Amino acid sequence: MELNSRQEKILKIVKQHGPITGSKIAEQLSLTRATLRPDLAILTMSGYLDARPRVGYFYTGKEPEEILTTKIRNILVRDVQSLPILIKEDTSIYEAIVKMFLEDVGTLYAIDDKRDLVGVISRKDLLKGTMGKSDIEKTPVSVIMTRKPHITTCYPNDLLIYAANQLIEKQIDSIPVIDKEDGQEVVIGRITKTNITRVFVNLME
């Protein structure tokens, strides 16, 4: 995060005189407390400063890199997950190919009649399915999909860094986000490489 000149001055004052009240900071800058309030809020939320009632502001000692690392480590899967693309396990390979093309995704999640996750279908799976002699308009995706227990999953409250590590270690494009409902593992989202890339871009901006 790039600080403006006034925020840099506030940071310098707090480093030298902290803990110091907002009124004292405003006095040194010849500004009103109300004028400084947005800058103090930004510096506090960004992790540069901390504040204690009746004590004032003090410098946390954290550098920008440390603040960024802390933010990344605290992001949860539920904060960035996107909607899953679901199909029934008896869907034909042909229909799955059309679905993947129309939704512009790299992975489909197969569910049973109870909405329980039963399989994952990747582009590679569909490609293999079309290379055989089977009729892809009649052959269900259940024949080619990856089944449990070979499916990597994550939960909404898992750390995003955990999901990112799973994508790297398992060399996969996405991970279904599941939640327990009446004993079933219901798919409620997905984490992809695009989700994670977007997080890093947003943090840098």
From TrEMBL:
Domain CBS: from-to ranges: 80-136, 145-205
CDD domains in the cross-refs: CBS_pair_CcpN
SMART domains the UniProt entry points to: CBS, HTH_DEOR
Claim: Transcription is one of the keywords in the record: yes
A single MF term (Gene Ontology): DNA-binding transcription factor activity
Highest taxon listed in the record's lineage: Bacteria
Keyword annotations: CBS domain, Repeat, Transcription, Transcription regulation
Name of the protein this chain belongs to: CBS domain-containing protein
Species this chain originates from: Lacicoccus alkaliphilus DSM 16010
